[in-house]
Design brief:
Elements (H helix, E strand, L loop, with lengths): L3 H13 L2 H8 L3 H15 L4 E4 L2 E4 L4 H26 L4 E6 L1 H4 L2 H12 L4 E6 L2 H9 L5 E4 L8 E9 L1 E5 L10 E2 L1 H4 L4 E3 L5 H12 L6 E4 L3 H9 L4 E5 H4 L8 E5 L5 E8 L6 H15 L19
Parallel strand pairs: 3-4, 3-5, 8-12, 9-10, 9-11
Antiparallel strand pairs: 1-2, 5-13, 6-13, 7-11, 7-12
Helix pairs in contact: 1-2, 1-4, 2-3, 6-12
Length: about 300
């Protein structure tokens, strides 16, 4: 039997025609090449080369062996190429989902990290509501979903991402514009734009009013936080929004006011229970967690999310 190292050395001599050339090709010493060639010939009882004028020529009886060696070497090259492609992500696809509030700013920043790590990776991103996320995972359409809430489901596991806060957003020129903070009671005095309080995401926004037993009226309802921001920017009212939707200046043209009452909430990654995660999705989760924790209230510099600089 020949080892892969012996195959590599014999082929190098065959290709270059000299011991010195083989040594340079393999970046090893010439005496080591010479000894291994002699040992291989002796152990197999086959003479591989004839030496003429300092060059090595294959013997007639070794021609078939060299043909097989080239075949083995090609297989090794093919294996190396496949490993390289896997390392770049060329043979895989990252399939992930996210609720709208996290998909606006945080997911793209995490995907940027993933793309740098795996430049050839196929990526499929789905923006999902709660009822869609469950089937998305259980039916194997994707590996994970970034969520701003968790639920009890026997088929799903939830891993923590980061904590966030809520902000009041107002259009430029509004009488609250320019203030650093506002109370929940003050917010209820103005026309509100928001998500349906029965929606899990909308419930997060409504909680600040429920805790203080404040009556409020949502004059315009929208399904997504980005739509809420657009309506506020148009001057149609004010709203309460999560910090991840508007982080890093993700929605310009509105002003952010800190809410005096506690508004902290948690976000999660949902995965199918018992399903193994690919290396690519593990790296995406780690990247998303890093991006979101960089703007966590307890880790940041105390400024509104739109004022933060990028952290890596």
């Amino acid at each position: 039997m020949m080892t892969l190292r012996q195959v590599e050395v014999i082929r190098a001599v065959m290709v270059t025609g000299t011991i010195g050339g083989a040594a340079k090709l393999l970046n090893v010493s010439a005496p080591g090449i010479s000894r291994l060639v002699k040992y291989t010939e002796r152990s197999l009882g086959i003479r591989f080369f004839q030496r003429q004028n300092g060059r090595y020529f294959p013997t007639p009886e070794a021609e078939n062996i060299f043909e097989q060696i080239n075949g083995v070497y090609k297989k090794v090259d093919d294996l190396s190429e496949i490993i390289s492609k896997i390392g770049r992500g060329a043979l895989s696809e990252l399939r992930i989902g996210s609720v709208p509030s996290i998909s606006q700013v945080m997911v793209p920043r995490a995907i940027e990290r993933v793309r740098r790590r795996y430049p050839d990776l196929g990526i499929d991103i789905n923006i999902l509501k709660l009822e869609e996320a469950i089937d998305y995972l259980l039916l194997g359409r994707g590996e994970c979903v970034a969520m701003s809430y968790r639920l009890e489901h026997s088929g799903l596991d939830f891993m923590p991402l980061a904590s966030g806060e809520l902000y009041c957003i107002v259009p430029p020129g509004h009488e609250l514009a320019g203030r650093k903070q506002v109370s929940a009671a003050e917010i209820t005095r103005y026309p509100l734009i928001g998500i349906d309080p029965k929606d899990p995401y909308g419930r997060i926004m409504a909680e600040i009013f429920a805790r203080s037993r404040l009556d409020y009226n949502i004059t315009i309802r929208a399904r997504f936080g980005t739509t809420v921001c657009a309506l506020v920017k148009a001057g149609l009212g004010i709203a309460v929004i999560d910090q991840f939707t508007v982080a890093h200046g993700g929605y310009p043209g509105i002003e952010l006011l800190k809410i005096t009452e506690p508004t902290r909430f948690d976000t999660y990654i949902a995965v199918k229970r018992g399903a193994p995660l690919s290396l690519h999705v593990e790296y995406f989760i780690a990247s998303l967690r890093a991006e979101m924790r960089a703007v966590e209230p307890s880790r940041g510099n105390g400024k509104a999310p739109a004022m933060r600089g990028r952290k890596k």
